[in-house]
Every structure is written in structure tokens, then in C-alpha cells.
Amino acid sequence: MAEFRVGEDDFEVDGRPVRLLSGALHYFRVHEEQWSHRLGMLRAMGLNCVETYVPWNLHEPGPGRFDDVATVGRFLDAAREAGLWVIVRPGPYICAEWENGGLPHWLTGPLGSRIRTRDAEFVSAVERWFRVLLPYVVERQVDRGGPVIMVQVENEYGSYGSDARYLRSLADLLVELGVSVPLFTSDGPDEHMQSGGSIPGILATANFGSRARESFAMLRKHRPKGPLMCAEFWCGWFDHWGAEHTTRDAQDAARALEEILDCGASVNLYMAHGGTSFGGWAGANRGGGALHDGALQPDVTSYDYDAPIDEFGRPTEKFRLFREILGRYADGPLPEVPEQPAALAAPVSAGLTSFTPLEGVLDALGGPETEHAVPPSFEALDVDRGLVRYAVTVPGPRGPYELRARGLRDLAVVYVDGERAGVLTEEEPALAGPVSGDARVELWTESLGRVNYGPRLGEPKGITGGLLHERQYLHGIRARGLRLDAFTADAVAGLPDAVPGTGARGLYRGVVEVSGAGDAALELPGWGRGFVWVNGFCLGRYWSVGPQKSLYVPGPVLREGVNDVWVLELDEAADEVRVRLT
């Protein structure tokens, strides 16, 4: 057991000054069988600490229904075995380019703008969640012989709100539930962010990617005493679907890291290893500059982040430069770089021979169809990740008029009398051609990821403003949801087979035979947009708009011999329905 404390000028362990050299690695973005390797890579880079968020929505998919919260404890144990301290950031909000910033859809739906405030209903839900989560953290604190040295209060709250009573209540709750290690806050290097997100008497830290001296000078205005720390050093960045791939020059990032350390500060590399947003959990951002109120920008499945350890766990040039810098601050020689995990021995390609049209998938795996006066949101239908089919018959007799999905979030493939009529988006919410009376209209509406940052956090998905024919609202909307977690092995095994038409949407199934299983990339040449599972493990979303061209397949997911592959195509399938593993 040891005592970790925040001193006047430094962090201290049993009275001895220490500098935290930390790296972000999210346990939920790395296959559990690969934790040990990735943590070993952090140690080899010269880090003495790992930082992780905890996504609430992953572990409480429904109110009071908890899913494998114990995985948090297993990760903390793995970090200890790797010789690393741990910084835990439990939220309740985490951002992290994660669906809804980690907040559950079943909570943000009804609460709207009351989230992340002192609102009694929100705070009550947080308390219930923390009472389940915190025991796994508390019993692993450093003063109890574990690796946990600090716990964050909320996350970048100054970028969102100014409810000081809410922040203080969270800090008090953490202490009440047994957190005895130091608490801290982290916010951007702007005065309003620091003043809105910090708590008197609790360590404040700053998040930035460059200009360390300026950022720490601003932080000192708010915290004249205490150790300096960059709690998120943005050494890379993330990608959006339909945009250019983002990278940061390794030499530039290394110079920025040196500047932080030259200031005598501690640091947390964000990210040290980004990993993958498996399971369709990638979030979305909004453009529009400082207001973050513009067009939706969905995050890609890969969270490689141009980090020093890439998505496959391999060291990059950034890793080598950082290791050289961090090694100067090590107590002794750095560990050897771990041997890399095995890669797939040889490329394989296979056709997908079974098919169920999307209508059949919805019939078998979807929720019940219900009728509503106006289109219900995804949240009202309890759909976190997936799609909703809205259906309505236009009243008649009447002439042809424009059909518009008002407040559409995010994308809808429209069929009129069984024929594909177009694709609607937020930017283009009206069909190009008119729709006549008595027509049967279906809008297959997808969520492309809930916003994870900014004032639009927690916004609902679906047709949120009504369905208009000319200027008249249509009522009597039938709706049926399809969740991604409905795709279990037993459920998929029971789907009927059909003959696909050219480019047909639906669930394609087949097998690939592997000799020499290991890490691989799955490619889908010619496919449009959808999700992929290998042996029942959801790799995430693919989309032909790029920039991501393949999906990472962790070696532990593959097995020698026959492997099942499912592809849920939501737009237009390839002419030749094949997949490649390379």
C-alpha cells in the first residue's frame, strides 16, 4: 500500500515527488485478450501510468440493467500486473468520440437539456450507476494496494456548463462512495472552461495539443499552487466519415511533448493507443466552429487517432520519438518493446452465400411495430444503435406534393409503393420527386452516431420534427426499431434464406476459412454502408465514403478453420458479395 497525494508543487508517493507519465488506453476499445500486450507497449514507451474512461451507456444498456461492469476491475488488475498506475475517468460524461459521450440514450431522451446539471432525476441516475461502478475502483486504490491513483470529476465540464453545485455534488458523491485518492478536473486552456469546470480545493488540469507554456500560464491564474498536468495531450486526432484522414507530424508532436515536460509538468498522452470503436459505438460531432451546432460529422469506427501505438498495436515513428524523450525521465532502462501479436498468415477471400432481405431481418429481430400520432424518436423506441422503419399511408385522394422529413437525424432511405425513391439527410430532408395521395411510404432511418461533444449532446435520433406532405403533417405513423444487439448467433441462425436481387439491402452471411489466425483487416470492395460481425463479434460500421477503407479484426476474434461472417448492408450491396481478410 502507498499514499499518493497532491503536494504544493508535485505529485507525491509516500512523500517522494513523482512525475506522472501517463497514456490513454480505453479498455472498451481493445479486445480483452490484447490488454496485456497494449499495456506492455505503454510501459515500453516510458510511461508509468495508464488512463481510461468508463462509458456508462456500455454498462447500463437499460435502467437498472447492468452489463459486465466487472470488466473495469479486470482492466485495473491487468494494469497493475503491467506495472502501471491508473487514472480513472468515470464520467458520467466522457466525450471520447463515443456514442452520446457515454450517456445512456434512455436517460438523455426524456431529460434533454437537463443532463449534466443538478437536476434531481439526472443526479439520481448517476448515483445509482456510481454505486454499481465505484466498488470496482475503490477496492483497487493505491492506498489499498491497488493501482488507482486519481479519479476525475465529470469531464471537460467547462466546455459545456457552469453548474458549480452539480460538480460539487459529484465530488461529494465520489468521496461518499469511498474514493480516497485525489480527485481532479480537466478542461481546455481557456478561462471560461477552467472557471466553469474546476472545483475549489480540487486539482485542476488542462487539455491541449500545443503551446504548453501559454496553457500552463493560464492554469496558474486559477491554480497558483499544485502540480502542473496536461491531462490530455492531443498527440493525434480522430477521423469523420466522408472527410480526409487526419494525421499529426511525429516530429511536431515530439516537440510539443518536450515542451510540456520542460515545464516540469506531468502528462497524459491522448491517445497512447486509440484502438477501435467496436459494436457501432462510435459517436459524432457537429461542425459550426466554436458553437458546434452545424452539420453532423459521424466518427469512423477506427480510433487509431494517429497515436504512437497504432490500431494494430504496432509502434510508429511517434512511438520511437516519444520513447526517446520519456526515457530521459525513467528511473532506469526502459523495458524492451513487446513482440507484436501474430498477423493473419495469408490473405483470404470468400463469397457470402446466404441472404435475408432487410424487411425479413426486421420482421425476425426487430421490436414490435407500434402506431403513433407523430414519428417517435429512437429513444422512445429504445433504440440505441441501429435503425427505425417509419411507415405511413398518405391520405387521399390528393395530387402529388413534396414529402419532407422535418428534423431528420440522421439519414433515411425512402421507399414509395415498394420502390426506392431516394435518400434523405439533414441537409436534404425532402424527396426530389413528389408523392401522390394513397401512396405507401417507408423511411428506413439510421442513426450515424449520437453527438459526443458540445451543446447538441443528447439530441434525439429519428424523425424529430414530423413528416410533412406539402405543408400538412402526416399522422398515424407506424414505427419499428432494430437494435444492433439483436444480432446474436441464435437469432441470426434462425433467419430465412432468400435470393438477393442486384444490390439488395439485407443481411449477407457466409464463412471464411483461415489458416494461421491473427490480426487482420477486413475489406468490403464495392459495398455501401452497414455493419460487420465476425464469429458474432461486431467489428463496427463500414461506409464507402471513407476515409476508412477496412475494419480491424483482432486476432482473438478469428479461429483456425471456419469463421462466420455477417454483413448488414443498409444502402446498396456490391455486385459480387465477397469479403477479404488481409
Gyration radius, rounded = 25 Å
Low-confidence sequence ranges: none
Report strand %: 25-35%
| Count of helix runs | 12
Q: Strand count, sense and closure of the main sheet?
A: 8 strands, parallel, barrel
Rounded average pLDDT: 97
> Considering DSSP H and I runs of 4 or more, what fraction of the residues is helical?
10-25%
What general outline do the C-alpha atoms trace? Answer: globular
- Side by side, the strands of the main sheet go 4-5-6-7-8-9-10-11
Alpha-beta content class: alpha+beta
In short:
The chain is an alpha+beta fold. Helices cover 21% and strands 28% of the residues.
Give the topology, please.
Elements: E1 4-6, E2 11-13, E3 16-18, E4 21-25, H1 35-45, E5 49-53, H2 56-59, H3 70-81, E6 85-89, H4 105-111, H5 120-138, E7 148-152, H6 164-176, E8 183-187, H7 191-197, E9 203-208, H8 212-222, E10 229-234, H9 250-262, E11 266-273, E12 284-286, E13 296-298, H10 317-327, E14 348-357, H11 358-365, E15 370-372, E16 386-393, E17 403-405, E18 408-409, E19 411-416, E20 419-425, E21 440-446, E22 462-463, E23 467-469, E24 472-473, E25 477-483, H12 489-493, E26 506-514, E27 520-523, E28 529-534, E29 537-543, E30 550-553, E31 561-569, E32 578-581
Helix pairs in contact: 5-6, 9-10
